[in-house]
Amino acid sequence: MAEETAAKRLKTEAPLIGTHNGHFHADEALAVYLLRLLPTYNPSTLLRTRDPSLLAKCHTVVDVGGEYDAPRNRYDHHQRTFDTTFPSRSTKLSSAGLVYLHFGKAIVAQHTGLNDTSEEVKILWEKLYVDFIEALDAHDNGISAYDASALAAAGLKKRFADGGVTLGALVGDLNPNWNDPTPADPAQAQMEEDVKFVQASELMGAAFARKLTYYASAWLPARSIVHKTYADRKQYDPRGRIMVFERSVPWKDHLYALEAEEKVAEQDKVVYVLYPESAAPDAKWRIQAVPVSKDSFESRKALPESWRGMRDEKLDEVSGVDGGVFVHASGFIGGNKTWEGVKRMAEKALEF
Predict the structure, then answer these.
(1) H-only helix segments in 141-245
(2) Which of 63, 200, 230, 327 could form an SS bridge with 95, CB 3.0 to 4.6 Å?
C-alpha cells in the first residue's frame, strides 16, 4: 500500500521540501516536521513559495500546488476533487493528514524500533491520527466537530471561548501581525517569515513527539494489563461492574474498546475502577467512576450523592465504610485508606 511504501521510495540524497509562503497554518507546519523525522529528509532544505516553476524542482511538496500524487510526492488537499480520508474515518485530510497517511507508519516504527507492518505500529498509527492529527485536518478544512444545524436546533451555545488555546490558534499567533514592520528587501522579509514558520513547525512537532512517546511508552503497554484486569473483573462483582488494578494505568481507551468488541449490555458495563495511589505497600486506594465516554464529565454511575464532598470521619459516617479519605463533590472519584475499604465502597455504591 502507498502509506507503507512511501518512505522506502525516497532517494538517498537530502530532498528539497516545498510548501507555500505567506500565512501559515498548523497542518503544513506539522507536515514539514513529520517529513524531517525520517532519516532521508533529515537534513533537508525547505522552500516556501507559490511559484510553480520553483515547486516543480522540489522533491516533495505539501499544502500547495493543487496536486495529490503520492508516487511523485505531491501532497496538496485544496483541489476541488480532493476527498481522501484516513482509513475508517470520514474527515477529509489536510497536508498533515496526507503526510501522516503515507509516512506515519515509518515514523512510528522508527520511534519504537518495531517493524512497520507490525500490529503494534498499526495500533499506534491509528491512535495518533484519531487523537491528534484528525482535529488538525478538520480545522484546516473548515469541518466542525459538531453539526452546526443540530446545535442550533437544540439551542446549545458555548459557555466560554476556548478557540484561543488550540494548537492551530497558537500556530496562528506566530504569523506576523498586519501592522508589524516589514523589511523593504523581499528576500529579507521572506527570511523572517520563514523563521516564524520553523518556530511553528517545531511547536507542532514537539506536541506530536510528546503524544507519540506517551502512546508508545505508556498507553500501548497498558493495553495488555487492561485486558487481563478486564478478564478478571467478575471475581469482584458477578456482573463485572468493578475492575481492580494493581497500579494506576491508562485504562479508558482500552476498556471502551473491549466493551465495544464484546457488545456488553449497558447494565453490565464497568462502572467503578479501583487502584492504589502509588506502589508503596501502605498506599491509599482510589475508586473512580467510569465516564460515559472518554472526554465526558458525566459518569456512568457517580458515587452516591450523600457521599459527595465528604471527607475522613464524616465520610465514614455517611457511607458506613471505615477508612474514608474523600469523595469529590461531583462523585467521579473517591478514596479510602485500605484495599478492603475501597472495595467495600464500590460494593455499597453499586447498591444505590
Answers:
(1) 148-154, 167-173, 186-214, 220-231
(2) 63
d(C-alpha 70, C-alpha 72), whole Å: 5
CA 35 distance to own-chain centroid = 19
Contact 243, 301 (CB under 8 A): no
Query: Cell digits for 337?
Result: 485508606
C-alpha cell at 128: 495518533
Q: Cell 507508519 belongs to which residue?
A: 105
**Max Cα separation, the chain?**
78
Cell of 319: 457511607
3-class DSSP state of 291: strand
Answer yes or no: are the C-beta atoms of 297 and 291 closer than 8 Å. Answer: yes
